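Quiz preparation item.
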């Protein structure tokens, strides 16, 4: 189980996918707070419908990015957040948040990074003529969409695609891989080797009781005497 705080700016369909996975029991996480930098974000309605506390922080209320980010960190810490989940949060975060949550901030981006970081990426993918695009869940570092990659999913780019149709196809994959990546974190299965991330294999059955010799499934433990 992991306590998460979700940062949003817009529709919040990724937030919804995370909420749905938590409610379905496939994601062992507790959404402690949703923070939006946009008072009109539909994501706030989604949070309210599911009884999740939400906070709106407007940049005009702060003298600098750092001051804004200090307030974000205060909200996250006050709510006991362990993993920060950026889900369509359209601000670049400063060191203030990065240092408060080192390698504990995830983001989802609608391209196969390192191709097409930044904004308007479906349009850029079409203009470039790539045959596949997709989405990436990555940890956030000081660069732009440049941190260690956790999961990627690819989709084909079709001749008839517009930025909107491509975005829709990619979004469906985002909704699949983001809850999965958070679940890997929740299970403590994420390992770093430099900037490479690998996912540790699931431990032997963990939700069952084992005696010293034999698991409940009747197989001998590797280290137990015959
Ligand atoms: C998603 O496609 C997400 O990947 C993208 O914004 C959309 C948010 O949708 N994020 C970025 O482009 C960040 N660089 P949502 O609000 O419906 O989850």
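Solution:
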């Amino acid at each position: 189980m992991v306590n998460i705080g979700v940062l949003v700016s817009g529709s919040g369909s990724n937030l919804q996918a995370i909420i749905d996975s938590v409610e379905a029991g496939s994601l062992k996480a507790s959404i402690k707070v949703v923070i939006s930098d946009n008072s009109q974000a539909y994501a706030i309605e989604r949070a309210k419908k599911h009884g999740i506390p939400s906070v709106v922080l407007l940049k005009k209320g702060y003298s600098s990015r750092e001051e804004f980010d200090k307030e974000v960190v205060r909200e996250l810490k006050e709510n006991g957040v362990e993993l920060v989940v950026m889900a369509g949060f359209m601000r670049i975060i400063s060191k203030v948040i990065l240092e408060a949550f080192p390698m504990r901030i995830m983001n989802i981006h609608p391209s196969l990074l390192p191709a097409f970081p930044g904004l308007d990426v479906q349009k850029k993918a079409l203009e470039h003529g790539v045959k596949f695009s997709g989405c990436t869940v990555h940890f956030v570092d000081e660069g732009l969409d440049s941190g260690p990659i956790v999961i990627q999913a690819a989709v084909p780019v079709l001749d008839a695609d517009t930025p909107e149709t491509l975005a829709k196809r990619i979004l469906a994959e985002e909704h699949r891989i983001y809850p999965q990546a958070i679940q890997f974190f929740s299970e403590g299965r994420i390992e770093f080797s430099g900037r490479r991330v690998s996912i540790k294999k699931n431990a032997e059955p963990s939700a069952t009781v084992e005696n010293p010799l034999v698991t409940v499934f009747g197989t001998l433990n590797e280290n137990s005497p015959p």
